[in-house]
Amino acid sequence: MKMPKGKTLSLRLAEVGDAEFIYRLRVDPSYNQHLSVVDGTSDDQREWLRKYKERESRGEEYYFIIFRTSDQFPLGTIRLYDFVGGRKSFGIGSWIVADQKSRFSALESVLLAYDFGFSELGFEACHMDVRKDNEKVVSFHRKSGALLCREDDVNVYFTMTREIFDNFSNRFRPLLTPVVA
Ligand SMILES: CC(C)(COP(=O)(O)OP(=O)(O)OC[C@H]1O[C@@H](n2cnc3c(N)ncnc32)[C@H](O)[C@@H]1OP(=O)(O)O)[C@@H](O)C(=O)NCCC(=O)NCCS
After folding, report:
1. Is residue 144 over pLDDT 70?
2. Is 13 inside a domain boundary?
3. Does residue 165 belong to any structural domain of this protein?
4. Measured distance CA(158)–CA(67) in Å, rounded
5. Three-state SS across 56-93?
6. Structural domain total, the chain
7. What is the CA(57)–ligand 1 centre distance, in A?
8. Residue 181 has pLDDT above 60, yes or no
9. Which residues line ligand 1 (CB under 6 A)?
10. Is residue 180 a contact partner of residue 11, using CB atoms and an 8 Å limit?
11. Which domain holds residue 119?
12. Tens-digit pLDDT profile for residues 46-104
């Protein structure tokens, strides 16, 4: 399986040894306002990752560490999960890019995750739920062209089809092209 690589960022599968890094991101109040609460300790995170690795080995879920290709610096996480209807739709979540990011890190990381779901895994669509009060991310998905399908009291629900993704990624093609092969 080819690991995603963009202009400046790469994705690699999370390992149990990443527990501390992920835990620190998840408990940081500057990132976790709109994410589900993580209870427990980095040991619980380690245990969660052990179980995740089983799901990964069955092809049910892919949890990526986002890192800067030039110096391997880890910037965040993004996860493909909740695969429904065979290859009908995949969910994207656990998306965090830390403050050391550049202006384009959010776009590059999400484009790489979409591309993995559509091109590598062959899905037809992608679904995302975003907390309503996470206005910045709601706006991000709207700008990408994703369809706002429904909402409830807490979340808005977006769908990104392969066709919309093709338009979105064509606008940002250079971000999906590594500077160094
Ligand atoms: C979610 C997260 C990764 C997004 O990253 P971000 O850097 O805040 O994303 P932004 O919306 O500021 O987008 C980055 C840049 O890309 C631009 N951009 C985004 N979508 C664009 C589009 N479709 N076309 C053109 N530019 C676009 C933005 O305008 C921004 O540029 P600017 O800095 O010049 O304004 C980050 O905010 C984060 O880690 N948040 C905490 C965790 C979280 O809430 N995750 C989401 C859970 S659903």
Report:
1. yes
2. yes
3. yes
4. 26
5. HHCCCCEEEEEEECCCCCEEEEEEEEEEECCCCEEEEE
6. 1
7. 31
8. no
9. 31, 34-35, 95-97, 101, 103, 106-107, 130, 134, 136-137, 140, 143-144
10. no
11. 9-174
12. 999 999 999 999 999 999 999 999 999 999 999 999 999 999 999 999 999 999 999 99
